[in-house]
Amino acid sequence: MNEELALATSTGLPLASLVFHVAMGVAALVGGFIAIAARKGGSWHRRGGIVFVYTMIATGLTAAGISVYEGKSPGGGLVTAYFVFTAWTTIRPLPRGGRPVDIALMVFAFAFAGLGYLGAFTALGRPGNRLDGVPAGMLFFMSSVNLLAAIGDLKMIRAHGIQGSRRIARHLWRMCFGLFIAMGSFVAQLFTMKYIPDALRSLPVILVLSAGPLVVLVYWMWRIRLRHNLRGLMTRKPIEAV
Fold first, then answer.
1. What is the mean pLDDT of residues 67-87?
2. CA–CA separation, 168 and 159 (whole Å)
3. Across residues 99-115, what is the average pLDDT?
4. What is the pLDDT at residue 55?
5. 3-state secondary structure (DSSP) of residue 192
6. Which phi and psi (to 5°) does residue 134 adopt?
């Protein structure tokens, strides 16, 4: 098993991969928060969203590669890329081969949900209820979200697509959850970076950064799925609440 990669000790291709991963991650956070703050459907929202999608997919794929190099599971990086990619294709479907790709991604989500539950139950029998440093509770949480996403994929495929408020809700919750994963990874790194000011490691800052995307996610699900309130959203085509 390889040692964990670090910017201070890596060289060559591993160092280049880490630098690229960190740069893409920082760009993704900037683009993600611009997309959250801007008016939905407006030009700033679309520009921030485009930056977020491309950089998050690059971040997730490089994270998966780094994990394989370290002898760990690439699931976290692949799942991150899955959430962001499916959020994007909800608004901009693939011009060709969309249905086979949707089916493949659904199978992927179901598979990783099952593997996640297996890992969670395995963690319960380990010292400290952890598996590779991840608490069993977090494994159950992530597996449940993956399962919900897979079920959503199944419903969309069976219905031959979704429209109205369900389409917007699918896009927004997957984008917000992708940002939550990215922010969680960033917060975790705050404790390992020596040059980060102590003020950024305080509990209030950590809670705001890590829980912020989830709060935004809950707000949009409440507004769009429960209230069917699409007022102020700018879209290319008129949207009617279902």
1. 88
2. 16
3. 93
4. 94
5. coil
6. -100, 125
- Between CA 161 and CA 35 the distance in angstroms is 24
Tokens of 241: 């609440």
What's the Cα-to-Cα distance from 11 to each of 66, 72, 194, rounded to whole Å?
14, 20, 20
Question: What would you measure as the largest C-alpha separation in the chain, in angstroms?
Answer: 55
For the purposes of burial, counting CB atoms within 10 Å of the CB of 127, is it exposed (0-12), middle (13-18) or buried (19 or more)?
exposed
Whole-angstrom CA distances from 101 to 4, 59, 76, 93 are 33, 21, 20, 10
The pTM is what?
0.85
* Residue 109 identity (one-letter amino acid): A
Q: What is the pLDDT of residue 224?
A: 87
Q: What is the pLDDT of residues 147-191, one digit of tens each?
A: 999 999 999 999 988 888 888 899 999 999 988 888 887 777 666
24 CB-near residues (< 8 Å, 6+ apart): 55, 56, 58, 59, 62
Q: What is the dihedral of CA 97, 100, 101, 102, to 10 degrees?
A: 120
Average pLDDT over residues 74-100: 88
Report how far residue 45's alpha carbon sits from residue 60's, in angstroms, rounded to the nearest whole number: 22
**Residues 6 or more apart in contact with residue 207 via CB below 8 angstroms:** none
The two tokens of residue 166 are 């369900």
Model confidence band, residue 242 (pLDDT cutoffs 50, 70, 90): very low
Q: What distance in Å separates the CA atoms of residue 150 and residue 108, rounded to the nearest whole number? A: 8
